[in-house]
Structures are given as C-alpha cells and as structure tokens.
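Researcher: Here's a chain I'd like modeled. Treat it as a single chain, no partners, no ligands.
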Amino acid sequence: MNPLRGSGARAVSGFAGAAVLLFAVAPLALSDFRLGLLAKYLCTAMVAVGICLAWGRGGLLTLGQGVFFGLGGYAMAMHLKLADAGPGNLPDFMQLYGTATELPWWWRPFANPVFALAATVLLPMAVAALLGLFVFRRRVKGAYFAILSQALAAAFAIWLIGQQATTGGTNGLTDIQGFFGYDLDDPVNQRMVYFVIAAALLALIALARQLIHSRYGELLVAVRDSEERVRFLGYDPANVKLLAYVVAAGMAGLAGALFVPAVGIISPAMIGIVPSIEFVIGAAVGGRASLVGAVLGAVGVAWAKTALSEEFPAAWTYFQGLLFIVALAFLPGGLASLAGIVRRRRAARRSASPAPVTVGEAA
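Model: Modeled as a single isolated chain. Structure tokens:
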C-alpha cells in the first residue's frame, strides 16, 4: 500500500471527524456560554497552528505571536467600532476621553470592510516580513531570536497603552456590538461566529498540513537541522525561515480578528508578553511538531486557564510556567509524542527478549 495514499486517507477521515465534532456535536452538547468559550479557545488553537509550522518544523521559537494576534484583533475591532458609531461619528471611547475632534487619519481606511478584512491578515504578515528580513539576513537565531520577538510584543503593548485617545489605552477597544451587520447580543449570531471560527481553524490546519508535507516542508526541516548544508546546496535559509514566520504571523492575525467578535473586546493585556508565552505553552504541551497535538494542547491549556485560574488565581501563573518547563525538559515532543514513545519501548523490549528455543534446536 502506498504510504502517502494511506496518510491522505487518514487525514481526510481526521478532518471529517473534526468537522463532525465542531459543527454537530459541540453545538448540541454545549450551552451558548460554553460554546462561546470554545470559540475563544479555538482562536488560540489557530495561533498554535502557526507556531507548529514555525517552531515545530522550522525551529523558530516565536515568543512574540501576541503582536500579530493583536494587529489582527485591533484591525477588526477598529472597523467594528466605526460601524457601531455610524458614518461620520467618532467611536464611543474617543468621545468619552474628549481629546479627539476628528477621526485620526490612520483610522479612516478601516471604515472600509474590504480593507479591514485584508489588513487583519496582511498587516501582521507585513510586520513579520520586515522583522524577518532584518533578523534572518543577519543570521540571528535561537535564544536571540526568541528574546527579540518577545521584546517586540512588550514594545507593542506599551505603545498601545500610551495611545489612550486613539487605541483605548489600557482598556482597549471594548463593547463591540455588531459584526458586519449582525447583532452580537443575539445567540444565533454568536453561534454563527463560532461556526466561522471553526471553519477557519480547519482551513488553517489544511493549509499548514499542505506546507508541511510539501517540498518546502522538507526544506524547512533541513534548515532547522543544518543551515550550512542547505546553504551549500544553493538555497537561502533566510528565505525559507522567513516564509514560515510570515505565514505563522498571518494565522495569528486571523485568529486575533475572529477573537474580537467572539469575545467583544481586544486590549493590550491580551497581546503582550504573557499571552505570547501562553500561545507557545499550549503548542509545547500538546506537541509542537504535531498539528493535532498543538491544536489540542492550545485548547486544553486555554480551558485550564479558565477553569483553574478561577479556583487558584494566585497560583495559576506558577503552574503554567512549571507546565512549560516540564514539557520542554521531560517531554519535548509534547503529549502527542507519548504514543510513539510507548511503541518504541515495546519494540525495544521485544527485540531485547531472547528468542524461544525449541526442543529440537536445543538437542
């Protein structure tokens, strides 16, 4: 049997099973409140898909995905706030602070829904491309790249907080009531938002799987393992890593854009250093080299944060950091690697056990 054909069949069956769970089982089994929480968790899973591509396959520890998540979220929120305010009116927070008499010039293009939708993905990708060109061309990698990406997340959050008159400052953009003409207070429309998020997640998984199993995916792994050999073969490792980084940024931007109608708010607290690390923790715990593992890990960690932080608000952060350390130190492949470890140990035991000796052979 052709292994590629078998892998494709398993992928199709996996997508079919995931579609049944997301579009049939979850809406029937969960209340509107729980379904809204699941929609939020699926947005974090979308970020984890990009991390799986960039970190799991390319070795790029991206600790600044909150920047791209925030760019997509703010782009969407700006359009929705302008739509709620109506033509010619200022968003409510600008009227409240009273420091702006007219709409800032960089807000005006977001009144166009086509521009806003494109910006949710293209703006994060453009920022990632600029940063990636600067970093990868200078062969910055490893811990230095991780620290630089984290510093970018901190700088972006600080800038947003300082622009209270135009970004809402610490509060962010809140009280978002509509989504392209649909009232978000209506439970039916909230379910529609959930279905859009679920469909987007499956589409991103399909895109990432296609990249991983393509020639580019093999080249990305080669760059991760030995840049010099890839350079000797005539490829530019900087371009290979740049593409993975830019695609992961676009996925994070789309996740941030869909997070806004699901939750109704976007603020600097959701996009700084801590959220960026939480994105990575979810992918690491589930398995950064496995799309399914990264998605399930992101959903599981997000659910645990909601459930456990209510009971242990002071201890949850420490538990989360310990979880990340344990995952990297003792289970680098995440929970998705447990099945492979068990199979290898069983095979090792079988090969180590002596072969049975028959009576005839002994004689």
